[in-house]
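If you are new to this repository, start here. Below is one unmodified record pulled from the training split, so you can see the exact layout before writing a loader.
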Amino acid sequence: MARTSTRPTSTRRAKAPPAPPKERRAAILAAAYACFWRSGIRRTSIEDVAVEAKLAKGTIYLYFASKEELFAALASQVCGELLVGVEKALATPGSLAERLAAALDAKIGHFHRILADSPHASELLDESATVAATHLSKLDRGFRAAVDGALRDAKLGLDARARAELLELILAAGYGTARQGELSGRLTSSAQRPKLERHIELLLRGAGVS
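And here is the target side for that same chain:
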């Protein structure tokens, strides 16, 4: 007669497999964003990021050697996303003024909105100027090149000097409009883009572009 096993059946669940390195890195960056924007950089520790990400502190160090390296990686990611937004805005069907306004809002407006979400905006800017200077510089170069390319491709009949002057005026309008929106508490895209379109239309008209 066959014996019947009396060994109790385990009710323990199998552990979920660890996330792939790319997904885990993304989770760490998302946690770092939440911590830095909520508490500021100086008040945030690697342990805080680990708790936010639900990971061991040592796991964070497998991906980032220091808090500064983590912030630099986060800045690189944010800058890359902003530039993608600019390129997407310029590729969207619409008038030149509409596309340029959308591009300005995608970079300048969105950057201001990101900072407005944190009570530690000044600290984040100060840290960015040192730790993330390379990434910010790359973003600015890419942004200027993208807007200049849109002006060049529009075949406005302007020589290089006139186009360069128009570019500077358009960028100044973008920064000025975002600053006004910041001061008035009206930084949303729906509030910013119509103003930007009107500014750009006037600038194009002033440059002799119909």
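Two things worth knowing about this chain: Residues 8-17 have pLDDT under 50 and may be disordered. The domain at 20-65 is CATH 1.10.10.60 (Arc Repressor Mutant, subunit A).
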